[in-house]
Amino acid sequence: MATTDESTGAWFGADGQVSQLRGQLFKASCLGATLLALFLVFVFLVYVAVDAIEPASADPSWWATVATTVAVPGIALSVYYYRFDPRAGEVAYTAVGLPIAATLLAGGVGIVFRHIVSPHEWFALTVAALVAYGVLELYDRVRAAGAFERAAISAFVIVFTIVGLPGLVPSVRSLLLSLPVLPAAPLSLLGTFVVPVALVTGWYVRHARESERAGLIAGGLTVAAAALGVISGPLVGVSWTTWLLLTTVVGVPVGLYVEGVFRRGEGVSGLALPVVLAAGAVICAGVVDMAGFAGPDIWLNWEFLTTAHNRTPREAGIYPALVGSVMMIIVVAIAAFPVGIGAAIYLEEYAPNEGVFGSFVELIEINIANLAGVPSVVYGLLGLTLFVKSGGLRPGIVIVGGLTVALLILPIVIVSSQEAIRSVPDSQRQAAYGMGATKWQTTRSVVLPRAMPGILTGTILALGRAIGETAPLLMVGVAAVVRISPDSFYGLFSAMPRQLYSWAGLAQPDFYHGVLAAGVLVLLIVLLMMNGTAILLRNKYQRND
Question: What pTM does this model have?
């Protein structure tokens, strides 16, 4: 009894009231740790931004003009939204960030069409996908036929998938190139890129507004705007490829978001923030040009993003490394995500939990969790052994770097996908079984749709880690500097982290202050955009749930 009184006396005061001192101290310690971490990250970002922008090199009048026309109105509107209309604030910040994110995505798509697939090759790929879909649809429609017919069609589908599909794209490409008159490149992209985007846009608007006419109008306007740009874009100094990407990748999502805000009628005033910022930027540019104010001598400019490395710091750029990172991420996504998500589905939905095999599955899960914490340099050695030494591939090419980094993030994808699948309530599975659904039907129609937000969040965060890795690339022989962007997945490449590592070792101060800071800022922007996308997806699906 005395022991009980002593133990309770630590929590209760002499007057019998609960002591909150320990809880308050713990709360203050957690808050202090959080603020310290945020402060250190903020200091790092400011340090990098100052080196990349060099604000002291600008005239004070230039900064005063920017503050008066852009910063002060934007801050005033943000304070108003925070205090009086939080919903409009969410709309405002999304309306500002969405065009920026869409523009970055358009740049990535432009890199794909410029360095990975040509418009004719994209046309061939689309035709091949349609033929494959037609074969599978044919099989689905004649499943009710007799046993002999089903066996014959199944054999045809298997043979076509194994033999015909891998050679279909080269065959279609060869057929296109052998034609006396080839479809123009703009027409190829209009038919195989813009039209699918227009169909998806029309379908979305049709279901959102519950009007088939609205869907047809939205899809038609998308095709018309892109086609108009193909004709008139070069007249105003904009290439037809840039116009197509701006129309489909930037204009469509921004237009759909603005249309959704007006349709719901919530937070419409938040759309004023991007308008105010854009108008302020135009006014600022006009005033600066008229008055002749000198802006900052920034390192992160358009030339830096579109040129290759140079021994002269002011002429050095990151474009080949940026292209290499995009191509590497494509390989990583294709290699890691299907395997990782498939493994997670099997481990959570199909693998036994009891018996000898159940113990073996548990051992596999423990090892997968441990592999997520293995140093990245070990995966570099594994990739060097598997793909270069054993596989006979050339070191330093895109596919070797992508497969090596895919091995690195594969455990992360599996673990995050397992957690997302495990979070689906078991009662929903039992309800599907009670209605007569099979295991596959339950997994496809019940489990995966509800687990997809968590799967997408985990995979995007894994991609963020993949794009920032350096050690595995060093181990597989990725070049420090590449002056020509790779034109295939078997070409030599450099990635942004590898390029930054090489710049950090150069002796000239302008490299490891200005050029390196600009490259770090580009990499941070890409990572923050990817992480922000994961957060937005998670919040969106949580609200829907």
Answer: 0.81
